[in-house]
Amino acid sequence: MAKVYINTAIPYVNGVPHIGHALDYCLADVCARYHRLMGDEVRVSAGTDEHGNKIQQKANELGVPVKQYVDENAAKFKDFISKLGVEYTDYVRTTDSDHERLAQEIWKKLSSHIYKATYDGWYCTGCERYVTKKEYDENHGICPDHNKPYEEFEEENYYFRISDFKDQIKAAIESKELLILPDYRAKEMLALLEESPDVSFSRPTSQLSWGVPIPGDDSQVMYVWMDALANYLTVLGYPEKEISDWWPATAEFVGKDILRFHSIIWPAMLMGLGLPLPKALVSHGMVLADGQKMSKSIGNVVDPLDVINRYGIDGFRYYFLRHIDTFSDSNFTWEKFENAYNNELANDLGNLVQRLSSMFSKHNIKFLKHNVKFSEQYIELMNNYEYSKAMDYVWEKIQNLNRKVDEEKPWMLAKAGEMEKLENCLNELGNGVVEVAYELLPFLPGSAEKILAVFGADVTPPSEPLFPKNRE
Ligand code: MSP
Questions:
Q1: Active site (annotated) includes residue 31
Q2: Which of 54, 211, 288, 319 is 20 to 30 Å from 442 by CA-CA measure?
Q3: Which phi and psi angles does 143 have, rounded to 5°?
Q4: Smallest CA separation from ligand 1 atom 12, residue
Q5: Tens digits of per-residue pLDDT, 268-326?
Q6: CB distance 294 to ligand 1 below 6 Å
Q7: Domain limits of the chain?
Q8: Is there a catalytic annotation at residue 293?
Q9: Which member of 113, 124, 262, 284 is catalytic?
Q10: Could you tell me which CATH number the domain at 333-454 has?
């Protein structure tokens, strides 16, 4: 039994959760449930990122005290996670006093790699990121992700000497000691690392007051990404607690837009602390709405709770884990969603369970359950974090079972009184469904449990459809 520690990126609380935020949580939850199924002991961290300019500015715009603003929004994110059926063991808000104290301890431990200098350059508040001259020129001074001009400033900051660790980070990525997925992103990160300057690690309080104070210098607060990345450690109590049972993390789930922070600053911080690197950084693509980035101004933001309230947690998880590709950008449209729900969940899976279990019960057939063994192919896909492909693989099995029902026509066997043949046929199909249900446990936990309950000691058809159609 291994100990597995899984991290999810902590979202900024400068708004309410949207469907894009669900991916980190859903993927991490699949990973956690899969490892538990394999007998591992699992911890999952989650939380919210509550400092920085973006949040301070938003609260100011609304005329609300920042603390009140983050408290209100943080509660919405916490509620959102539980609505997704995602289980976590450890939760951190970066405004928690424990986190702030531990982040300061981490700063002190890194002090031999920190120096003071003047920053003269650009910043994007949307990205919470310093921008190099090269990027500034390439983008003609405007952030392509936020469509806003970069802010220029000159100020005295503390810097973190990334250059102390560049060679080691490069070696860790190349040797896959730090596995970056998908593979092509590892190459992108190596190129970014090459040109990464030392990073400014603080802001003067005259510019940003909403942050963790630098130990011994109240005139500066930490750069929001230093404070945020530290969460994966502070949530375990580091450096006050011994964490070697759980650290390094087995996998960190992050969007492709924030992979750069996790591939450069974060490994450098860990190396500075003398800690091992996470084993895998799994970066997912973006969820697009009708082919476009979701944005309030375009008016195409999809409220995840709207989907969940109408189609249930597993309806939501199914689409997000299969039709949103694990690694590349994918589209959400209501039409695609409804087709997938009706044709695949309700018809392929729901009807199969309904039809089979009814025949078992009607003809009083005894179910002889086999021991379930996960196939090598499934295990390989799951171990490689190929979750949408693993779902495709399971669905192929479901379709084969449906084909078999159509070909073998068990109702004809019953009509002809061929009871032994009927028993064999239904048992083979029933065991196929049980196998599929086990493989679906990490993805659709509620529905998979229901299916396993149907195919229990006696087969008892579900009293209600697993995936009811015509939802309002
Ligand atoms: N606060 C930082 C993360 C710090 S982790 C130490 C941050 N927050 S965020 O709210 O902007 O994003 C949180 C996560 O949601 C990221 O993994 C990001 O990629 C993901 N997504 C936000 N919008 C998304 C989509 N439209 N689609 C998919 N994921 C997206 O970055």
A1: no
A2: 288
A3: -70, 120
A4: 11
A5: 999 999 999 999 999 999 999 878 877 666 677 888 999 999 999 999 999 999 999 99
A6: yes
A7: 3-285, 333-454
A8: yes
A9: 124
A10: 1.10.730.10
